[in-house]
Amino acid sequence: MNGPEREAAGARPAIPVNGSAGAPHRPRLLVLRALGLGDLLAGVPALRALRRAFPGHETVLATPAELAPLVRASGAVDTLLPASAPGRAVPEITGWHGPPPQVAVDLHGKGPQSMRALAALSPGRLLAFAADDGPRWYAGEHERDRWCRLLAWYGIPADPADLRLPPPAAACPAPGAVLLHPGAGSLARRWPVERYAAVAAGLRRAGHRVVVTGGAHEYDLLARLAKSAGLPDADVHGEPPLERLSALVAGASAVVSGDTGVAHLAVAHGTPSVTLFGPVPPALWGPPPLERHRVLWHPGPPGDPHGHRPDPLLLRIRPEEVLEALSLLPEVRTG
Questions:
Q1: Contact by Cβ (8 Å): 54, 124
Q2: pLDDT in the model for residue 3
Q3: Which of these, 103, 93, 235, 208, lies nearest to 156 by C-alpha position?
Q4: Distance between CA atoms of 59 and 41, rounded to whole angstroms?
Q5: pLDDT-based confidence at 181, cuts 50/70/90?
Q6: 4 has pLDDT over 70
Q7: How distant, in Å, are the alpha carbons of 19, 174, 318, 334 from that of 47?
Q8: CA geometry: angle at 168 spanning 167 and 173, to 5°?
Q9: Contact 286, 266 (CB under 8 A)
Q10: 3-state class of 299 per DSSP?
Q11: pTM of this prediction exceeds 0.90
Q12: Which helix (H) or strand (E) holds 176?
């Protein structure tokens, strides 16, 4: 499919995210990581390593267009090529114009589907787990470590701790508040809203302002939480734009959430956090081992992270544990 045919098929135009995007006569590096917010942030160390390894290339990232503010903040990308698919499927990479990329990197999955999406563009060099010269994929590896190891295999040093983002330009609407994010991409990772309400009540008794955020289709969830905890409308932020969400997280005294993108955003901004894990253990997606990031996890038999009901391991976590974990953070006192 050539350029005009892709446009006719509905391809979205590329988005410049760096002042040097689209500079003529530069070789291009294409990276595929067309997943969600947490996936993008877990991939920042690898993206920055690629930027250092290929400083003369225009780095093009195939990822959802709505992530543009954080792609820009990473400082590692010149151009965003909109790409997305339902769930964690592999999208077709459309909208690519001009010669094939000199280098293509599969940061999307173990392949072969994701690698084939890049191979269809006939890149000069392809780095991927599924490539003939690629490393072995380990299912039990932490997400940040996995992609840094892929690059190291190809002689590109990468630091999994290179996660921090600069402060957002937007002002925080609720500086110093404790932010609760009750939603998650699946019901299996969604701690009951009644328990979030109990945490909110405990925080408010201790004199803390509490704000809540949610994603698409979570307005009813936030309304239940706000009503149960007696929160004013001004402290309920349903589906805020990414810039606003980033500002809320960066300006919070602490963030409480499940294993979802907001937890990664707290790590990126250095905001203290308490993350509730289940069914996926923190060994796969947890924050770095820093005092300001606490995880709650009750080990047990693995469950389905895409299940349709809260996972039994997640349900073992009680509101009292969350309040205790918050009390261990220097910024939050609950008693």
A1: no
A2: 42
A3: 103
A4: 17
A5: very high
A6: no
A7: 17, 31, 37, 39
A8: 115
A9: no
A10: coil
A11: yes
A12: none
Describe the crossing of helices 193-205 and 219-229 by its angle, rounded to 10 degrees: 40
Angle, in degrees to the nearest 10, between helices 143-153 and 44-53? 20
- The residue written with tokens 């939603």 in the block is 183
CA dihedral 252, 254, 257, 259 (to 10 degrees): 110
Classified as helix, coil or strand, 295 is strand
Q: Tell me if residue 137 falls in helix, strand or coil.
A: coil
Closest CA to 249 of 229, 263, 234, 235: 263
What letter would DSSP give residue 53?
A: H
pLDDT in tens, 18-74: 876 666 779 999 999 999 999 999 999 999 999 999 999 999 999 999 999 999 999
**Model confidence at 320, in pLDDT bands (50, 70, 90)?**
very high
End-to-end CA distance of the chain: 63
Q: What is the C-alpha radius of gyration for the chain, rounded to an integer number of angstroms?
A: 20
Q: 279: cis peptide before it, omega within 30°?
A: yes
Rama region for 149: left / alpha / beta (φ>0; ψ in -120 to 50; rest): alpha
Tokens of 195: 């328990």
| 189: confidence class by pLDDT, cuts 50, 70, 90 | very high
Mean pLDDT value across residues 228-237: 95
28-32 and 103-106: which strand pairing? parallel
| Helix and strand counts by DSSP (H, E) for the chain | 13, 12
Strands of 103-106's sheet, edge to edge? 15-16, 79-82, 58-63, 28-32, 103-106, 125-127
- What is the length of the chain? 335
Q: pLDDT-derived band of residue 12, with 50, 70 and 90 as boundaries?
A: confident
Q: What's the rounded mean pLDDT across residues 157-169? A: 97
Which among 161, 160, 164 has a CA at the least distance from the CA of 149?
160
Which residue type, as a one-letter code, is found at position 35?
A: L
Tokens read off for 105: 């990197």
Q: How many whole angstroms separate alpha carbon 112 and alpha carbon 109?
A: 8
